Protein backbone atom coordinates (compact mmCIF):
# COMPACT_ATOMS: atom_id res chain seq x y z
CA UNK A 1 0.00 0.00 0.00
CA UNK A 2 1.26 3.49 -0.90
CA UNK A 3 1.65 5.72 2.13
CA UNK A 4 1.57 9.50 2.02
CA UNK A 5 1.66 11.67 5.11
CA UNK A 6 2.25 15.15 6.44
CA UNK A 7 3.93 15.61 9.80
CA UNK A 8 3.87 18.24 12.48
CA UNK A 9 6.98 18.75 14.62
CA UNK A 10 6.16 16.13 17.27
CA UNK A 11 7.04 12.86 15.53
CA UNK A 12 10.05 14.48 13.82
CA UNK A 13 11.44 15.54 17.21
CA UNK A 14 10.51 12.43 19.15
CA UNK A 15 11.80 9.95 16.57
CA UNK A 16 15.02 11.98 16.26
CA UNK A 17 15.43 11.77 20.04
CA UNK A 18 15.59 7.97 19.77
CA UNK A 19 17.68 8.00 16.56
CA UNK A 20 14.84 6.53 14.52
CA UNK A 21 13.91 9.21 12.00
CA UNK A 22 14.78 6.77 9.23
CA UNK A 23 11.51 4.94 9.99
CA UNK A 24 9.78 7.81 8.19
CA UNK A 25 11.38 6.58 4.97
CA UNK A 26 8.59 3.97 5.04
CA UNK A 27 6.32 6.67 3.64
CA UNK A 28 6.30 7.00 -0.14
CA UNK A 29 5.51 10.69 0.27
CA UNK A 30 6.31 12.77 3.35
CA UNK A 31 5.36 16.44 3.48
CA UNK A 32 6.54 18.95 6.09
CA UNK A 33 4.79 22.35 6.19
CA UNK A 34 7.13 25.34 6.18
CA UNK A 35 5.65 26.44 9.51
CA UNK A 36 6.66 23.13 11.04
CA UNK A 37 10.16 23.37 9.62
CA UNK A 38 10.47 26.87 11.10
CA UNK A 39 9.47 25.44 14.48
CA UNK A 40 12.24 22.86 14.14
CA UNK A 41 14.70 25.59 13.18
CA UNK A 42 13.79 27.49 16.35
CA UNK A 43 15.30 24.54 18.21
CA UNK A 44 17.66 22.17 16.49
CA UNK A 45 16.70 20.65 13.16
CA UNK A 46 17.60 16.96 13.57
CA UNK A 47 20.64 16.17 11.36
CA UNK A 48 19.02 12.95 10.15
CA UNK A 49 16.10 14.89 8.69
CA UNK A 50 18.22 16.00 5.76
CA UNK A 51 18.66 12.34 4.77
CA UNK A 52 14.89 11.88 4.44
CA UNK A 53 13.15 12.50 1.12
CA UNK A 54 10.58 14.96 2.44
CA UNK A 55 8.98 17.87 0.64
CA UNK A 56 8.51 21.31 2.21
CA UNK A 57 5.06 22.71 1.50
CA UNK A 58 3.09 25.87 2.16
CA UNK A 59 -0.17 25.39 4.03
CA UNK A 60 -3.44 27.17 3.33
CA UNK A 61 -4.98 27.21 6.78
CA UNK A 62 -8.37 28.53 5.70
CA UNK A 63 -11.00 26.42 7.36
CA UNK A 64 -8.70 25.13 10.08
CA UNK A 65 -9.49 27.02 13.21
CA UNK A 66 -8.64 25.64 16.59
CA UNK A 67 -7.30 27.63 19.49
CA UNK A 68 -6.07 24.41 21.05
CA UNK A 69 -3.55 23.77 18.25
CA UNK A 70 -0.27 25.56 17.65
CA UNK A 71 0.70 27.01 14.27
CA UNK A 72 2.57 23.90 13.13
CA UNK A 73 -0.25 21.59 14.08
CA UNK A 74 -2.78 23.77 12.24
CA UNK A 75 -0.56 23.89 9.15
CA UNK A 76 -0.04 20.12 9.11
CA UNK A 77 -3.77 19.51 9.59
CA UNK A 78 -4.58 21.93 6.77
CA UNK A 79 -2.25 20.07 4.40
CA UNK A 80 -3.66 16.71 5.46
CA UNK A 81 -7.22 17.94 4.82
CA UNK A 82 -6.52 19.50 1.41
CA UNK A 83 -4.39 16.66 0.06
CA UNK A 84 -6.19 13.79 1.85
CA UNK A 85 -3.02 12.61 3.58
CA UNK A 86 -2.35 10.83 6.84
CA UNK A 87 -1.51 13.35 9.57
CA UNK A 88 1.43 12.45 11.81
CA UNK A 89 1.22 14.07 15.25
CA UNK A 90 1.84 13.12 18.87
CA UNK A 91 -0.46 15.79 20.24
CA UNK A 92 -3.72 14.41 21.62
CA UNK A 93 -5.67 17.63 20.93
CA UNK A 94 -4.43 17.75 17.32
CA UNK A 95 -5.26 14.12 16.99
CA UNK A 96 -8.86 14.67 18.14
CA UNK A 97 -9.35 17.74 15.94
CA UNK A 98 -8.01 15.84 12.92
CA UNK A 99 -10.06 12.77 13.64
CA UNK A 100 -13.22 14.86 14.06
CA UNK A 101 -12.47 16.41 10.65
CA UNK A 102 -12.23 12.97 9.06
CA UNK A 103 -8.44 12.93 8.73
CA UNK A 104 -6.57 9.69 9.39
CA UNK A 105 -4.06 10.47 12.12
CA UNK A 106 -1.23 8.55 13.77
CA UNK A 107 1.78 9.21 15.98
CA UNK A 108 5.30 8.05 16.75
CA UNK A 109 4.14 4.76 18.29
CA UNK A 110 2.29 4.00 15.06
CA UNK A 111 5.37 4.82 12.98
CA UNK A 112 7.41 2.36 15.06
CA UNK A 113 4.68 -0.28 14.62
CA UNK A 114 4.66 0.47 10.90
CA UNK A 115 8.42 -0.09 10.73
CA UNK A 116 7.93 -3.43 12.45
CA UNK A 117 4.96 -4.35 10.28
CA UNK A 118 6.97 -3.65 7.15
CA UNK A 119 10.03 -5.56 8.35
CA UNK A 120 12.38 -2.60 8.82
CA UNK A 121 12.89 -3.51 12.47
CA UNK A 122 12.26 -6.70 14.45
CA UNK A 123 9.90 -7.13 17.39
CA UNK A 124 12.64 -6.59 19.96
CA UNK A 125 13.74 -3.35 18.31
CA UNK A 126 10.15 -2.12 18.07
CA UNK A 127 9.57 -2.81 21.78
CA UNK A 128 12.86 -1.19 22.69
CA UNK A 129 12.04 1.92 20.66
CA UNK A 130 8.59 2.20 22.24
CA UNK A 131 10.18 2.01 25.69
CA UNK A 132 12.77 4.61 24.67
CA UNK A 133 10.03 6.87 23.34
CA UNK A 134 8.38 6.82 26.77
CA UNK A 135 11.55 7.08 28.88
CA UNK A 136 14.03 9.10 26.85
CA UNK A 137 12.07 11.67 24.86
CA UNK A 138 10.07 14.80 25.50
CA UNK A 139 6.89 12.93 24.54
CA UNK A 140 4.59 12.41 27.52
CA UNK A 141 2.93 9.04 27.40
CA UNK A 142 1.86 6.87 30.31
CA UNK A 143 4.16 3.88 30.80
CA UNK A 144 1.28 1.41 31.09
CA UNK A 145 -0.08 2.59 27.73
CA UNK A 146 3.25 1.90 26.03
CA UNK A 147 3.30 -1.56 27.60
CA UNK A 148 -0.16 -2.14 26.09
CA UNK A 149 1.18 -1.13 22.68
CA UNK A 150 4.11 -3.53 23.00
CA UNK A 151 1.80 -6.40 23.94
CA UNK A 152 -0.27 -5.64 20.84
CA UNK A 153 2.80 -6.31 18.68
CA UNK A 154 2.55 -9.94 19.77
CA UNK A 155 -1.21 -10.22 19.47
CA UNK A 156 -1.50 -9.54 15.76
CA UNK B 1 25.18 9.59 36.71
CA UNK B 2 26.05 9.26 40.41
CA UNK B 3 28.25 12.35 40.19
CA UNK B 4 25.46 14.23 38.41
CA UNK B 5 22.99 13.29 41.16
CA UNK B 6 25.40 14.44 43.86
CA UNK B 7 26.01 17.72 42.03
CA UNK B 8 22.29 18.34 41.67
CA UNK B 9 21.54 17.49 45.29
CA UNK B 10 24.25 19.91 46.42
CA UNK B 11 22.96 22.61 44.06
CA UNK B 12 19.34 22.23 45.22
CA UNK B 13 20.34 22.11 48.89
CA UNK B 14 22.36 25.30 48.49
CA UNK B 15 19.72 27.15 46.45
CA UNK B 16 16.87 26.17 48.79
CA UNK B 17 18.90 26.38 51.98
CA UNK B 18 18.03 22.80 52.90
CA UNK B 19 20.11 19.95 54.29
CA UNK B 20 21.01 17.41 51.59
CA UNK B 21 19.09 14.72 53.52
CA UNK B 22 15.90 16.78 53.08
CA UNK B 23 16.54 17.03 49.33
CA UNK B 24 16.91 13.25 49.13
CA UNK B 25 13.71 12.75 51.14
CA UNK B 26 11.71 15.05 48.86
CA UNK B 27 13.15 13.38 45.74
CA UNK B 28 12.14 9.97 47.08
CA UNK B 29 8.62 11.19 47.82
CA UNK B 30 8.21 12.64 44.33
CA UNK B 31 9.67 9.57 42.62
CA UNK B 32 7.53 7.24 44.70
CA UNK B 33 4.40 9.23 43.85
CA UNK B 34 5.17 8.86 40.14
CA UNK B 35 5.82 5.13 40.44
CA UNK B 36 2.58 4.74 42.42
CA UNK B 37 0.59 6.54 39.73
CA UNK B 38 2.19 4.34 37.04
CA UNK B 39 1.14 1.25 39.01
CA UNK B 40 -2.44 2.45 39.52
CA UNK B 41 -2.85 3.35 35.84
CA UNK B 42 -1.31 0.02 34.75
CA UNK B 43 -3.71 -1.89 37.00
CA UNK B 44 -6.66 0.13 35.68
CA UNK B 45 -5.69 -0.29 32.03
CA UNK B 46 -5.15 -4.02 32.58
CA UNK B 47 -8.62 -4.35 34.10
CA UNK B 48 -7.33 -5.15 37.59
CA UNK B 49 -8.67 -1.95 39.14
CA UNK B 50 -12.00 -0.34 38.44
CA UNK B 51 -12.25 3.18 37.06
CA UNK B 52 -13.63 4.86 40.16
CA UNK B 53 -10.87 3.40 42.32
CA UNK B 54 -8.24 4.58 39.81
CA UNK B 55 -9.77 8.07 39.84
CA UNK B 56 -9.74 8.07 43.63
CA UNK B 57 -6.01 7.21 43.66
CA UNK B 58 -4.61 9.43 40.89
CA UNK B 59 -7.40 11.82 39.92
CA UNK B 60 -9.82 12.02 37.02
CA UNK B 61 -7.50 14.06 34.77
CA UNK B 62 -4.76 11.42 34.74
CA UNK B 63 -7.20 8.56 34.24
CA UNK B 64 -8.93 10.33 31.34
CA UNK B 65 -5.60 11.21 29.73
CA UNK B 66 -4.45 7.58 30.04
CA UNK B 67 -7.70 6.50 28.37
CA UNK B 68 -7.13 8.88 25.46
CA UNK B 69 -3.52 7.72 25.15
CA UNK B 70 -4.61 4.09 25.18
CA UNK B 71 -7.12 4.67 22.39
CA UNK B 72 -4.44 6.47 20.33
CA UNK B 73 -1.80 3.79 20.88
CA UNK B 74 -4.21 0.96 20.07
CA UNK B 75 -5.27 2.72 16.85
CA UNK B 76 -1.64 3.39 15.96
CA UNK B 77 -0.31 -0.11 16.52
CA UNK B 78 -3.26 -1.67 14.69
CA UNK B 79 -2.66 0.67 11.75
CA UNK B 80 1.11 0.19 11.78
CA UNK B 81 0.85 -3.58 11.67
CA UNK B 82 -1.75 -3.61 8.91
CA UNK B 83 -0.97 -0.61 6.67
Write a structural description.
The complex is a heterodimer of chains A (156) and B (83). Helices cover 49% and strands 12% of the residues of chain A. Chain A has helices at 9-17, 34-42, 71-83, 92-100, 108-117, 123-136, 143-155, and strands at 4-7, 29-33, 54-57, 86-88, 105-106. A five-stranded parallel sheet of chain A has the order 3-2-1-4-5. With 83 residues, chain B is mainly alpha-helical. Chain B has one domain (2-82). The longest helix of chain B has 26 residues, at 20-45. Chain B is elongated. The termini of chain B are far apart. Classes of the chains: A alpha/beta (156), B mainly alpha (83). Chain A binds chain B through residues 1, 3, 92, 95-96, 104, 106-107, 109-118, 141-149, 152-153, 156, and chain B through 38, 41-42, 44-46, 62, 65-66, 68-70, 72-83.
Rounded to the nearest angstrom, the radius of gyration of chain B is 19 Å
Largest sheet composition of chain A: 5 strands, parallel
From the helix content, strand content and strand pairing of chain B, which structural class follows?
mainly alpha
> Under the CATH scheme, which architecture of chain A would be assigned?
3-Layer(aba) Sandwich
Low-confidence stretches of chain B: none
- Please outline the major beta sheet of chain B: none
CATH superfamily of chain A: 5'-nuclease
Strand content of chain A: 5-15%
Mean pLDDT reading of chain B = 94
Count the helices of chain B. How many?
4
Q: Write down the CATH class of chain A.
A: Alpha Beta
- How large a portion of the residues of chain B is in β-strands, by DSSP E? under 5%
**First-to-last CA distance of chain B:** 41 Å
**Rg of Cα set of chain A:** 15 Å
Strand count of chain B: 0
Shape of chain A: globular
- Tally the helices of chain A: what do you get? 7
Strand order of the largest sheet of chain A: 3-2-1-4-5
Oligomeric composition of the shown chains: heterodimer
How far is the first residue's CA from the last residue's CA of chain A? 18 Å
Amino acid sequence: MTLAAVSDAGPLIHLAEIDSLELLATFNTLLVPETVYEELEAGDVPDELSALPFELVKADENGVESEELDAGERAALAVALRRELVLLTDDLAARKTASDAGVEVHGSIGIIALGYGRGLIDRGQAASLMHALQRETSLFVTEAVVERGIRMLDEQ
Amino acid sequence: MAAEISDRVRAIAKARDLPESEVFERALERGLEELWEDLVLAQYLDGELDREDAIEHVGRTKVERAERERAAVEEDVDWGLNA
